[in-house]
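Pilot study result, target chain (280 residues):
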Amino acid sequence: MICYKYMSFDTFKKSIKPDGVFLKVSRPIEFNDPFDCVGRITGCPSESLIRSFNRRKVNSSTAWNGQNIQFTLSIASHSRRIFDQWYRIFSVCDAAIVGTPAEMLMWAHYGDSAKGVRIGIEVDENFQWVENIAYEDVLPTLDLQRVREWSPFEDDVLKRFLRNCLLTKHEVWNYEKEKRVIFRVDDECLKNLSAVDQSADVETAMLVWSPPKTLIKEICLGAEYLSGCKGCEEIDKRSDEFSQIVVSLRKNGYVFKKLRAIRVSHYCYDQVPDETPDLQ
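Predicted structure:
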């Protein structure tokens, strides 16, 4: 199955490095939806949870004494910041979106108004860590009474809650058919941009991921890729730029099943007249 990543052409160009294609992985605090990666807390903490929390937080100023609500706030209100310390996320959309009205929105929102690029990445048995987003009208909820251990990796209830926070979005985003690849920040397959691009600003360098070359199957240009070009000379220059990128990728071992520019079609419209009306 193919999943798709939409981006601007400039972002696509910057992702091409001598050693391959390196795609940015997102920080949770960068998401445009303020309720993404956020959960809701209910109930009173169990005694075992209080003991566990106080045991791990040796600083007495953060001890949970029944009046201190720092722990609750740290998960509920600041969960995006907590996730930002632990995880990086690579988002793609399901192939089912192609050829539907929602694809226009994806090109508009993420593909630089259809002037950008769509990369097709094959999801197979080597890609078991891809997770589907659940679209809900309520936030993931954690009942503190059910949590026994203040550890996201030891307590199943807390682990499930944090996982749901990472993989739940409001149902208004359902058209995106999003899937996520979730990385630990210390995952060995992630690289600091400065390590693969010496010209990158070290202070603002981000983490990037290079999908295996065999998994990148498609590169599609948006319908408006050549818009804004003035005259045939500029069109040829822009087309040559893309051709040179493709040549360099093929020399680097990339093999594409599809390599094309998409065309504007009528699939987006429910009502298409049988005949073009006379506009005069």
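One observation from the pilot: The first strand starts at residue 2 and ends at 7. A full batch analysis is planned for the follow-on phase.
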